[in-house]
Amino acid sequence: MSGERFLLDSHILIWLDTGDERLSPGVLRTLRGGEKRFLSAATAWELGLKQAAGKLRLRVPVGSMLGVFGLIELPVAIRHGDQAALLPLHHRDPFDRLLVAQALVEGLILVTSDKKLAQYGVPVLLV
């Protein structure tokens, strides 16, 4: 998948941060071989909410992970919200729906372990 552009789901970022074995060497090679790897601003918001609620502890702030993992910030735009509103209700998590919309609008491959997200017709790299 060299030259592909990826958008990371929130749990993929957590797995990168913790060195989780679910990110196999093959998946890591695929991600590193991608032209660009994006992280949505919505993911920072989602993980921030989980941290504030005491449900998550990260080693470094999400903003610092951009540099650590070579990620590019993907802001949330009106066009992403418009696309998310048009999606069928295969999935009820608003953060996941927004990531799907961003991947569709921006032509990105969504990196996730959530098989339900593929129902939207978005290109996915299932981990």
What this model shows, in words?
- The protein has 127 residues and is of the alpha/beta class.
- It has one domain: 5'-nuclease (Rossmann fold).
- 47% of the residues lie in helices and 15% in strands.
- It has 6 helices and 5 strands.
- A 5-stranded parallel sheet has the order 3-2-1-4-5.
- α5 crosses α6.
- The longest helix has 13 residues, at 94-106.
- It is globular, with a radius of gyration of 14 Å.
- It starts with a strand and ends with a strand.
- The model has no long low-confidence stretch (mean pLDDT 94).
Q: Give the helices and strands as they follow along the chain.
A: EHHEHHEHHEE
Task: Count helical runs.
Answer: 6
Q: How confident overall, as mean pLDDT?
A: 94
Q: What is the tally of beta strands?
A: 5
Order of strands side by side in the largest beta sheet?
Answer: 3-2-1-4-5
Give the end-to-end Cα distance, rounded to a whole number of Å.
14 Å
Q: Helix coverage percent of residues?
A: 40-55%
User: What is the CATH topology assignment?
Assistant: Rossmann fold
CATH superfamily (homologous) name: 5'-nuclease
Could you describe the largest sheet, including whether it forms a barrel?
A: 5 strands, parallel
| Helix vs. strand class | alpha/beta
> What's the gyration radius in Å?
14 Å
